[in-house]
UniProtKB/TrEMBL annotation, chain A:
The lineage of its organism: Bacteria, Pseudomonadati, Pseudomonadota, Alphaproteobacteria, Hyphomicrobiales. It comes from Devosia pacifica. CDD domains: TM_PBP2. Part of the binding-protein-dependent transport system for phosphate; probably responsible for the translocation of the substrate across the membrane. SUPFAM superfamilies: MetI-like. This is Phosphate transport system permease protein.
From TrEMBL, chain B:
It holds the Pfam family ABC_tran. The keyword ATP-binding applies. This is Phosphate import ATP-binding protein PstB. GO terms for biological process: phosphate ion transmembrane transport. One of its GO terms (molecular function) is ATP binding. The gene is pstB.
Amino acid sequence: MNSLVVAAVLLVLLGLAYQVGWSRSRTVAVGADRRLHSRPAYHGTLAAIWVLVPVALVLGLWALFGPGVTDSYIRSQIPADVAASLEPAQLNNAMARIRSIASGYGVLGEPQPFENQAGQALRQFQLISFLIVIAAAAGLGVLALFAARRRITPALRARNQVEAVVNALLVACSAVAILTTIGIVVSLLFEAIRFFTFISPVDFFFGTVWNPRFSTTGTGGEGDYGLIPLLWGTVMVAFIAMFVAVPVGLMSAIYLSQYAHPRLRSTVKPIIEVLAGIPTIVYGFFALVTVGPFLSGIGNAVGLDIRATSAATAGLVMGIMIIPFISSLSDDILRQVPKSLRDGSLGLGATRSETIRKVILPAALPGIVGAFLLAISRAIGETMIVVLAAGNSPILRLNPFEPTSTVTVTIVNQLTGDTDFAGPQSLVAFALGLTLFAMTLVLNVAALLIVRRFREQYE
Amino acid sequence: MDMIAGRGNMAEQNTDKAAKVDTLSDRRVRVSTRDVCVFYGEKQALYDVSIDVPDRAVTSFIGPSGCGKSTFLRCINRMNDTIEGARVTGKIDLDGDDVYDPSLDVVELRSRIGMVFQKPNPFPKSVYENIAYGPKIHGLANSKSDLDEIVVSSLRKAGLFEEVKDRLHEPGTGLSGGQQQRLCIARAIAVGPEVILMDEPCSALDPIATAVIEELIDELRENFTIVIVTHSMQQAARVSQKTAFFHLGKLIEEGPTEQIFTNPVHKQTQDYIMGRIG
Ligand SMILES: Nc1ncnc2c1ncn2[C@@H]1O[C@H](COP(=O)(O)OP(=O)(O)OP(=O)(O)O)[C@@H](O)[C@H]1O
Ligand SMILES: [Mg+2]
């Protein structure tokens, strides 16, 4: 209700401001030599911006300080003797009950008289304060509108000012994304540094044993935090995944972009892309329930000991998950290769496959390698499939048919259950996260650089 | 085979140039087309084009932009196959064999009919590799030195060798527009096609480079069949023995170049040559 009123007031004010700015600019522009610098629409927009700023300021301040003011009002409504007799927790509870009474939701049990009274008072207070805020906002807005109206002259560079505001808005939005990234990285970094006060970086990065004993007391008994087994597991699973996904994905991209009839392509491509939309947890239990037993069945048949949950199972299913990623990206890249190159090759009497192997693939190679790198970073960061299907066994083993564990799985393990972020057992997650982030960052940057080089070649 | 003789009116009108016409009409017909229509989707781009291209001569296609010259050229080596929605009807023969016969090997056809495209399209490979590409896939060179030989002679013929001899191993896409055009010509002649289709091969060239290419065309004519699309009347007059004038997708008039330029039958042809349509 309140927010509806606010929105309505705001809309009316902005509409009015636009209208005033628009018509005022037309009025001042009469006379032969008084050409407007900017179109009336810009004057209108500028006036609306002038109004928006103070209104938003008032509303923002209220959103920021309103709750605090209300709280202290509620406290002042609780009789002093009652307040003195209550524990802090009980006091909070009473305040919550008063708020509920004021909003008319009702409370559990019979409200005490002081609660009822305070509730009524709060209700009035809320109404009045809301009216004051709205009136203040609207009043300031109208004042701003007058100021804006007076500024309007034919020479006013309204267009440039509006553009500057739009520009600032866009910058602010991208700043949000960048600041978030920086914030995440910085917090990862600080927590990781805290972890390294427990375990030396050398032991972490070069240790070959992973055995973080969970000590319930939180003192002593730190255990071993060697990254190598996890890193090896990650690399092995990612490698198996790429081994599956690269040939299949690339071949299907070549088929789609070079051989398939456009009508076929336009139906097949979306279907392949649906594969990318399947939640990874679904792939995970597909791996656990179907692929794992199937692989170990094959193993039995040929006399090999293949475990149902293993690096191979996880890698295979992850590869299937990545196929659409590679095929769709590569397809786009292959289709970006100018048709004139293909024609040039065909015109010399080259076959289709010669053209693809010797002209189109080399021309698209940087872009395709970029796609591969993006896919690898996807594989490295993938969690659900490995949690379910890799067997969770952080031991350094070369055999891909044995269970293994990855960095992501270990992060999950370290953070599930009771965690207090005081000991290395949970802090290690940040160090692992940082490692993972660094790996994918390097891969992504490499991919971007390569893809950019490819773009420059043709555009 | 006797199609040219069938076009009686040409021969009659050019009695004074009888010698020339005779030599042309004596020539074997390399490519002969009958009632060729081309459709791009619903839109028809060519209407019933019938023409004979004589062996060991230069035939030029002229006509205003968008009249279908490139389209017709692409029909001859079936490059229209690669265009989505393009459809060709009618009959096109190369040495009496139907080019659109389903049993025909398109790859072989295109190695016999080379093409220089309207827009230069060098591969993103080195200058050397651009030219060596064709000879390699057709196994024309037995050794590295054979290949070098082919590359150098092709570049020489296209008048490009002197300019690029120090940068044979730099990307062909780094050359200037006109150099790329000559690179594409060199690339086409390196595979030694019997028929060469050239779509405005001199559009980006200065008069000197143009002269080199025209010399090349004249030289190639001794052994090959050449079709050239050009917007330059002077060029058509200089290099070709036979000229065909297209307008709005129709073949308006064809005949010995001398006759087309001195004594055209159709008013449209005359207007175009005099620069009144275009
Ligand atoms: N790929 C295509 N798809 C659809 N229409 C096309 C295509 N290529 C050419 N056309 C159309 O066919 C007609 C003939 O085009 P074409 O390229 O053969 O002209 P042109 O005589 O070579 O012209 P120019 O001298 O400008 O090169 C034009 O109307 C053109 O718009
Ligand atoms: Mg053309």
